[in-house]
Amino acid sequence: MPTAREALLNAALAALAGLPWSAVRMVDVATAAGVSRQTLYNEFGSKEGLARALVRREADAYVRGVERLLTAPAPPERNLAAVAEWTVGVARARPLLRALLTGCWSERLPAPRPARARARVAALPAQRRADAGPPSPAELLGQARDLAAAALVAAGRTEDAAEALRSCEIVLRLTLSCVVAPPDPADPVRLVREELARMRVRHSLSATNPKAGDR
Fold it and tell me: How would residue 184 be classed by pLDDT, with cut points 50, 70 and 90?
């Protein structure tokens, strides 16, 4: 059974599916969640605090999804391709995530800023974290890149951590380009798969001949 906080976030997200954020009312969110309006304010402090928590939850869910896919029992390149396919699909279905990944916020969505420096500090640790503000697209991509690069290194695909980070960032930035403008509706991550194939070749050459890349 969800906590009161999760129930309120779920209710806010459901309301946002049919209304612009400016038209979502706190009293309606509390009623839909089956809690008092005072409980809502105790959890989030304000509507802006609720928006920050909603966006933070979406960002955290994305990172957990990336981590789950990268730890599947399969070659890391295949898992990275799964991350790309999942990212494109889930960003299409979840406008908040798409905005987080691209930085393009429509008027329908909450686009929360960090809490003001002089604002009262939230009592709940989860809200204090949310009040710090949402991650930027670069920060969110960086978290996914670091997880992917660590998976490559752990699987023995490369011993060069810097090269792993570079390769994974290229793949993930290609993925974001597919979110913004899919090159082929029938195969939206074709470019990603092609880059992963080249990446496998590069890492294979590096493993068999450390100086291959110098020639």
Answer: confident
Contact 158, 152 (CB under 8 A): yes
H-type helices in the chain, by residue range? 4-18, 26-33, 37-44, 47-70, 76-93, 95-102, 125-131, 137-154, 161-180, 190-208
* Domain extent at residue 110: 57-125+134-214
Compute the distance between CA of residue 123 and CA of residue 144 in angstroms, rounded to an integer: 30
How many residues in the chain? 215
Beta carbons within 10 angstroms of residue 69's beta carbon: 23
At 18-62, the pLDDT tens digits run 999 999 999 999 999 999 999 999 999 999 999 999 999 999 999
- Could you tell me if 133 and 179 are in contact, meaning their C-beta atoms sit under 8 angstroms apart? no
Whether residue 95 is contained in a domain is answered as yes
Number of domains in the chain: 1
CA distance 52 to 21: 12
User: Is 168:174 a contact under the CB 8 Å cutoff?
Assistant: no
Quick check: 129 and 5 in contact, CB under 8 A? no
Q: Work out the widest C-alpha separation in the chain, in whole angstroms.
A: 69
Beta carbons of 115 and 131 less than 8 angstroms apart: yes
